[in-house]
Amino acid sequence: MKIRRLVFDEHNRRHIARHGIEEIEVRSACGNRHIIRQARNGRLLLLGEVLPVRRILAVVLQPMAEPGHYRVVTAHYANQRERALFDAGSEGDTSHEH
To answer: pTM (2 decimals)?
Structure first.
């Protein structure tokens, strides 16, 4: 799966800001090493690394009609379970497509 475009608007920017996250961090997590899992309601959960600080973000994406375009629903710093999932799923994997 290739992410060609992340869609942000004032609503989702304010929402992720309430979690202490900035748009640039979401873009970093999606552009660096990450894994993607199916989430509820047709959404995707992306767990990705923000460099150079190596923080792991959990980003919920809503696929849009255009292939490769995703609206950011929310994002937060990964909890312990999500970090373990990221570590297990990305071990030895250097690709960005999953």
So the answer is: 0.88
Euclidean distance between CA atoms 75 and 92, whole angstroms: 25
68-78 burial string, b = 16+ CB within 10 Å, else e? eebbbbbbeeb
Q: Profile the chain (98 residues) by mean pLDDT over runs of 10 residues.
A: 93 97 96 94 96 92 96 97 92 46
Give long-range contacts, CB 8 A cutoff, 24+ apart: 2-6.
2/68, 2/97, 3/30, 3/31, 3/61, 3/68, 3/70, 4/66, 4/67, 4/68, 4/69, 5/66, 5/68, 5/69, 5/70, 6/30, 6/61, 6/70, 6/71, 6/72
CA–CA distance, 44 with 62 (Å, rounded to integer):
7
- pLDDT for 91 equals 59
Distance (Å) of CA 84 to CA 6, 11, 56, 75 = 25, 30, 10, 17
